[in-house]
Amino acid sequence: MQPKFGKLLKFGGEKGSPQILDPAKTFSAYPIDIKPVAKNLLLSSSHPERKSYLRRNNTDMKLRLLSLLFVMAIGATYAQNVDRAKLDAYFDALEKNDRWMGSVAILKGGQLVYTRAIGYSDVENGTKATSSTRYRIGSISKTFTSALTFKAIEEKKLKLTDKLSKWFPTITHADQISIDDLLSHRSGIHNFTNDDDFTQWCTQAKTEAEMTEIIRKGGSDFEPGSKSEYSNSNFVLLTYILEKIYGKSFVRLLADRITTPLQLNGIIAEGRIDGKVAAHSYGYTGKWEKAAETDLSVPSGAGAVVADATQLARFYDALFDGKVVSETSLTQMETLQDGYGKGLFTFPFNGRKGYGHTGGIDAFTSIAAHFDDGDITMVRLSNGANIEENDISVVLLSAAYGLPFDIPSFEKRPVTETQKGYAGVYATPTLPMKITIMERAGALYAQATGQSEFPLEAQADGSFTFEPAHIKIRFDLDKREMTLMQGGATLLFTKE
Q1: 272-276 long-range Cβ contacts below 8 angstroms, 24+ apart
Q2: Could you tell me the pTM of the whole model?
Q3: How does pLDDT run across 444-474, given as a tens digit for each residue?
Q4: Where are the beta strands (DSSP E) in 394-480?
Q5: What are residue 255's phi and psi, to 5 degrees?
Q6: Do residues 37 and 391 touch, judged by C-beta distance below 8 A?
Q7: In the prediction, which pLDDT does 165 show?
Q8: Residue 365, C-beta contacts closer than 8 angstroms, at least 6 positions apart
Q9: Pairwise CA distance, residues 33 & 486, whole Å
């Protein structure tokens, strides 16, 4: 059985209740908590808080659900050229220390000014990633599906006011749910990737009838149009509607109407991972371990697109250059309601705002964003992370705008003899699970009941961290206590 990476305790949900953080349960990185970094640059992605940026001269709005929020850096103007040597040194450091695997791209004025791939597309066979390696991009797929939907609207094959009941009358409240509601996550349709059994069947191929029945059984979480709440079910249903309208598969629609006209044939929405052209994804538990592979028939237009970093950046550049949908359609995609656009969110950075989306599927994570100020497009695709990925996005944008950034040293601190005494089993009355701390070869590891083991990294202040899940732990040997902090919440455990 494949390990489920990232299935680590997550605290600080909407109501402060404990949750499980499981990237495999979402085609979007949004529910994954990427907390603000304690720096002047910041990127957050847990509750949608972002904006659909201003295209060649636009507006400004606010987002709120899955967000990768870039905030303020110092400095004003941006450089015409990025410091490639320094960026290479930055990614060299990540690769040397097993911190990250993936590919990045930066476009300025439509020109590729930087790209780099590090790590492996297939760890087991030693296949190195290249700039043409494809990665699953998860919910960034929704930008493509939204664009296809607006193309159908422009051709008068569809209207934003059309009701879901026209195609799927058995879905709860189908006669009240519009195409607009689906695009804006305002339908109330339950998000099937939140179900506890999702990881038990997501690797199996599913037909439209099977997926529709899963969505129908999920029912409704709120009255249509009453609020916005992220749901992959919306875009799966949109995909099926598009397929019915055109009489073609999503795979063919994507190729015929977007990627072939733009000469971006490396962007596809089909196929199994081979480790050569398309990368496997990995979790880090002291070493890279392969994650399970979701069958692409499950997410379809909600998360099935596969792309390399450069071609994905070119798609976003074309979208905001008016080469994919009309200006009217793009404005509607950008317009936010309760923090949600239609296939887009916003990302503030250094007083600027960019439009884009994030994604997460299996152990893949991704972000693509376009900033009109400077005509900059940034893409970061990952198939393995052992670091706060927010930092990578901030570094890329800092380099694009000529702002300073640091190259981390990743100096490992050995566990002291006193800290070895932290080993043991810890429990809390708040959760029905225990956390075991283990010492092995001068390092500490943690494992929650029924979950994968993960390494803890010693910090200068005496705490221990696991960056991929944004966990920080402090121990009090005298009181036999362990304090776990994650996502703004704190839990106290006592050693048994």
Answers
A1: 273/136, 275/121, 275/122, 275/124, 275/125, 275/127, 276/121, 276/122, 276/127
A2: 0.81
A3: 999 999 888 888 999 888 999 988 788 999 9
A4: 424-427, 434-440, 443-448, 454-458, 464-466, 471-476
A5: -70, -50
A6: yes
A7: 98
A8: 23, 29, 32, 138, 358, 359, 382, 385, 389
A9: 9
